[in-house]
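Project outcomes to date are best conveyed with an example. Our students and postdoctoral researchers have been running inverse folding experiments weekly, and each run begins with a structure described purely in tokens. The record below, which covers 358 residues, was selected by the lab manager from last quarter's runs and is presented without edits.
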């Protein structure tokens, strides 16, 4: 079968190979035919080494498709079922799951160190234990979440990561208060989803911040009341909040410099929500006095900060009701053979989300 492979960390191009085999099928596993997958910035971060990932590997973790085969002990799934791939399944038994913090379950991360694929040259890993830039994947049954017939594969793929992460940051982690002021720094697919979440919660002012003009224009269509470049953020802070700072600031870039900017633009007593996945050697510096004196809440948001399965269901319900626009997030579509074009679209910021059709 075909898959897009990164041979070494740091390479910028993926190679499309047709000698890949999805491995690991057996009890408790399912084989999925991938139909659509989104390109998430985390894939780029894994490729450049910002996120830890053994190589060679198949990127992709935001996918949807249909079940081809189920292993023994799998009772809730059948061949032909339409599913979204969940890269962070909850085991239901660990301390985090028992506390109701299923997004912090580490069971899914354990899969990242086991090869998902094989080719004549040796083992190949799947990013985040999945690897959806491939025609087929073998995953734990818990990673395959059934979706209703009316949810297209491209929409389902977005729900698998970016939309759940952005919406959840506003709805779950921040629990944005109606009438509040919000700034979202970084307006790709995840940031735009955070904008939509803040709008759903009734924020009065939503300022979208991004260096790319087309993304700023898109943010206004999705619910932002104002869109500015990073250089214009100080002026927007003065205009919208009288210089006090925003009630909520979402950092959706994953860099300490951006997080520091977000902190400085959060009002005293306000909330900074860290959504972007950053590198382990990139440190955010805060002095102890400001941490005490400003009393700002710093809330990291992992995968939307709530139960993933419930978040999927909520997003589908909101999409059906027309309360969130998911189709509009897909600004580009490419076949798997043109995956490197999708990478360029992500790097330049020309795409909110590129759907790779497999």
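After processing, the design step wrote out the following sequence:
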């Amino acid at each position: 079968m075909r898959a897009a492979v990164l041979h070494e960390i740091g390479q910028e191009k993926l190679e499309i190979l047709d000698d890949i085999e999805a491995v690991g099928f057996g009890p408790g596993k399912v084989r999925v035919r991938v139909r659509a997958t989104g390109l998430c910035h985390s894939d780029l971060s894994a490729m450049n080494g910002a996120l830890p990932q053994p190589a060679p590997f198949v990127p992709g973790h935001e996918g949807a498709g249909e079940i081809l085969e189920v292993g023994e002990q799998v009772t809730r799934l059948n061949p032909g079922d339409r599913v979204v791939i969940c890269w962070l399944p909850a085991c239901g038994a660990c301390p985090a799951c028992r506390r109701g913090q299923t997004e912090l379950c580490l069971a899914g991360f354990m899969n990242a160190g086991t090869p998902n694929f094989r080719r004549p040259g040796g083992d190949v890993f799947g990013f985040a234990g999945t690897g959806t830039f491939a025609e087929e994947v073998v995953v734990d049954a818990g990673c395959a979440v059934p979706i209703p017939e009316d949810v297209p594969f491209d929409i389902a793929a977005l729900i698998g990561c970016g939309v759940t992460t952005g919406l959840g940051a506003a709805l779950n982690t921040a629990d944005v208060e109606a009438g509040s002021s919000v700034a979202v720094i970084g307006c790709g697919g995840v940031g735009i989803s955070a904008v939509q979440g803040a709008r759903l919660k009734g924020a009065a002012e939503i300022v979208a911040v991004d260096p790319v003009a087309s993304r700023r224009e898109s943010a206004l269509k999705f619910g932002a009341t104002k869109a500015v470049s990073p250089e214009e953020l100080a002026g927007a802070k003065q205009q919208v909040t009288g210089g006090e700072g925003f009630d909520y600031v979402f950092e959706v870039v994953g860099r300490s410099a951006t997080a520091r900017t977000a902190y400085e633009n959060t009002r005293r007593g306000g909330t900074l929500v860290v959504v972007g996945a950053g590198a382990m050697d990139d440190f955010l510096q805060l002095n102890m006095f400001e941490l005490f004196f400003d009393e700002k809440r710093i809330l990291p948001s992992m995968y939307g900060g709530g139960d993933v399965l419930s978040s999927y269901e909520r997003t589908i319900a909101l999409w059906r009701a027309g309360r969130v626009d998911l189709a509009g997030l897909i600004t580009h579509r490419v076949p798997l053979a043109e995956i490197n074009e999708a990478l360029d679209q992500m790097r330049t910021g020309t795409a909110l989300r590129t759907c790779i059709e497999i």
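The CA atoms of residues 171 and 197 lie 6 Å apart. The chain has a mean pLDDT of 95. The training component of this project remains on track.
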